[in-house]
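Notes from the 1:1 (GR / supervisor)

We went over the backlog. Supervisor wanted to see one worked example end to end before approving the batch request, so GR pasted a single chain during the call. The sequence is below; no edits were made to it. Supervisor asked that the structure be written out right there so they could see what the output format looks like.
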Amino acid sequence: MTPPSMPVQHSEPIRHSEARYRLQRSVGRVALYALMVCIALIVIIPLLWMLSTSFKLKSQLFSREIYWIPKVITLENYTKILNNPSTPIALWFRNSVIVATLTTVAKLALDSLAGYGYARLEFPGRKQLFGLLLATLFLPGVMFLVPNFVTVARLGMLNKFSGAIVPALASVFGVYFMRQFFLSIPKELEEAAAIDGANTFQIFFQIVLPLAKPALATLAVIEFLGSWNDFLWALLVLKDRAVQTLQPGLRTLQGAYTSEYGLMMAGAVIVALPVLLLYAFLQRYVVESVATTGLKG
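Structure output shown during the call:
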């Protein structure tokens, strides 16, 4: 009678495999976090240096030693730039808020309507027209400067806020972004509303649009940032100092105060602050939009 065979022991190799997998996962996670920290530092360090420089005296700017915290914290740069008649920062700030806000609100309205139309409405040539719109994304923006400027000039919109706002409303990216979000919303919700007697506009405004708050918040941040930081187009159409925005207005600091880096950094802080506050306020919706927006085509 042959003795019973002993069971094969596999527990030791399994434990080694699990330990190796956990080690590889931990190393990969540490490397990923290290990469993200490096990218964050690349973005944050210039902002911190800008903020620090804006509170420094002129005598501290050219010191051989680096001081992240100024020896003497002063508001001289802000006081000087805000009270200088040749640099009406408050007026430029107000103009930038008006232009960026109106542009953003108008874009959200037009892009959401157009995006819903391309996502849900059936009409001849819909796919071809949408493909043509997407093709314009590959064209450089500078090629539209001359025709847009000629159009704005002939319509009498130079040195007016409308000249900076109207050409910016043709936003193909916004239409594409909203269309992709609307495609991720189940059709059953709209079909149930239609069975209850709701028309297309009621379905859009009462059912679909409330669900699109995360996408609208994300698009609002993107469009407001683009309009707020717009320099070239604002420089072309807003020549008068009374209607200039912050970006072309602060350009005069480089010529008027060639070595006044403290004033330049103070102006940069004033420009960056509204956008940072807007993102901080809408960050929750931005993250939610990234997590829920579908890529359905």
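Supervisor's comment: The domain at 76-292 is CATH 1.10.3720.10 (MetI-like fold).
Batch request approved.
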